[in-house]
Amino acid sequence: MNRTIQVPLSEEDINTLKAGDYVYLSGIIYTARDAAHKRMYESMHKGEALPIELNGNVLYYLGPSPAREGQIIGSAGPTTSSRMDKYTPEMLDKGLKGMVGKGKRSPEVIEAMKKNGAVYFAAVGGAGALLSKCIKKADVVAYDDLGTEAIRKLEIENLPVIVVIDKDGNNLYETAKEKWKK
Questions:
Q1: Could you give the percent of the chain with pLDDT greater than 70?
Q2: DSSP letter string over 156-171?
Q3: pTM of the predicted model, to two decimals?
Q4: Dihedral sign of CA atoms 160, 140, 44, 41 in order
C-alpha cells in the first residue's frame, strides 16, 4: 500500500502502518548518527535536557555529505541502523516514534518498539543523491562540532521509505524471507 504521511507521526498513522507499506514522508524529521546518539544517551543518563524533543518525532540515521554549491544538502542516504541499537530502547521510552535507516534491528529494539508503539522505516541505501532531492531545508540544531554527524532538522517532502517493522513487531525482513522460501 502506498501512503503519504505527515511527520511528526500521529498515533493514528502509527496504528495503521503495516510492515511492507510504501510510504512518502513529508514534514519535519531530525538526523542523528552514532556520535549524536552516544551524546544524547550520555545526556539522558546525566539527567540533562536533550537538544531535540524525541516525543513523537522521527530520527533519520543520516550523516550527509557536504552540500555542493547551490544545494541544500549533500548525499543523504541512510546509514546502518544496528549501530544505534544500544541507545534506541531508551530513546523509544522517551517518546521517539519513528526511525529511518537501513538494515536489521536487534530483538531489544523491536521489543521497545512494540512497548512504545513505534515504527522503523528503511530508505534505499546507495540512493543518497536521489533522497537528497526530497530535503527542502536542513539546519544544524545541535552538536555542530560533530560535523556531518551533527543533529539536523530536516524539512522533507515525499521521502520514499518502506515500513520494515511496524508497532506490532511485524518484520518485513523476516516475512519476506519466509515468503520467498515458499
A1: 96
A2: EEEEEEEEEE-TT--B
A3: 0.94
A4: positive
